[in-house]
User: Which sequence fits this backbone?
């Protein structure tokens, strides 16, 4: 296992790794695939064009294809750390957080600052007090590890606040297609960077295909510049398979979400019947 414990009769909850299969069309390209040259640092054109159809006011230039969502977060934080600003190099993190966030922040030479969640959701009043001194805010909704989906009211308040303050927002939305209560809300703004991947929606974790999207073209260009001198292009075969995944009808995802919901209900019901106090994952 990548994270956690493995062995006979053990089900690991150590990582968010779907065990359902990816769409068939994703691996049907394998017998005939022959392109193994270096690719574009920004990501293959066909994949970026396909993604641009999913995001408002977008062009292929607004995307960078990365080695999973983790590289997208890493590169973006390092680029923002180099931007001159009156704000201190601090990053506001809602806590509890995805385990790598503080390390990525520190590796970028910045300092993590925390706002504690209340019942798994952002305390806007506390966030408002602490964000004034921060250069970046990371939002993770739907959240790993809480399983919560942030309220639309709070997200809209944050939109207005960060636009006023000029704060960068990294919105980690890798679980956006696996929500049980409503559709995902896409955070908007001049300095918003949306992070996503093909790992959860299409069960393609090991292929490590993620991406970032932003209408801040200067930031996107700086990320490409950084990636040119670090990992270079993202896995070409993985990108070709991700492109095939973009052709998958929504009905495929809906069928899998139905299975996830059934499992959620089974586990939540069982743990609740044992007397444990827990949030119902959304």
Assistant:
């Amino acid at each position: 296992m990548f994270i956690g414990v493995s062995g006979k009769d053990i089900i690991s909850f150590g990582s968010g790794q779907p065990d359902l299969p990816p769409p068939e069309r994703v691996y049907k390209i394998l017998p005939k695939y022959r392109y193994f040259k270096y690719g574009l640092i920004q990501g293959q054109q066909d994949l970026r064009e396909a993604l641009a159809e999913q995001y408002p006011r977008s062009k292929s230039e607004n995307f960078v294809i990365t080695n999973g969502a983790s590289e997208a977060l890493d590169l973006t934080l390092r680029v923002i750390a180099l931007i001159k600003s009156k704000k201190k190099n601090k990053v506001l993190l809602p806590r509890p957080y995805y385990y790598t966030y503080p390390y990525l922040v520190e590796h970028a030479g910045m300092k993590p600052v925390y706002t504690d969640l209340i019942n798994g959701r952002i305390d806007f009043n506390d966030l408002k007090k602490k964000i004034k001194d921060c250069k970046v805010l990371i939002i993770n909704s739907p959240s790993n590890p809480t399983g919560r989906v942030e309220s639309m009211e709070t997200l809209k308040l944050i939109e207005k606040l960060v636009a006023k303050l000029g704060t960068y927002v990294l919105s980690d939305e890798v679980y956006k297609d696996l929500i049980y209560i409503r559709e995902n809300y896409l955070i908007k703004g001049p300095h918003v960077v949306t992070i996503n991947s093909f790992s959860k929606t299409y069960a393609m974790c090991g292929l490590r295909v993620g991406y970032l999207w932003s209408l801040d073209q200067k930031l996107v260009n700086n990320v490409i510049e950084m990636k040119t001198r670090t990992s270079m292009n993202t896995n070409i075969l993985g990108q070709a398979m991700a492109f095939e995944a973009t052709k998958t009808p929504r009905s495929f995802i809906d069928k899998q979400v139905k299975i996830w919901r059934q499992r959620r209900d089974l586990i939540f019901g069982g743990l609740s019947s044992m007397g444990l106090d827990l949030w119902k994952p959304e």
Observations:
- The first strand starts at residue 63 and ends at 67.
- The chain has one domain: 25-245.
- Strands lie at 63-67, 88-95, 111-116, 134-140, 168-172, 192-197, 209-213.
- Residues 94 and 122 are 7 Å apart (CA to CA).
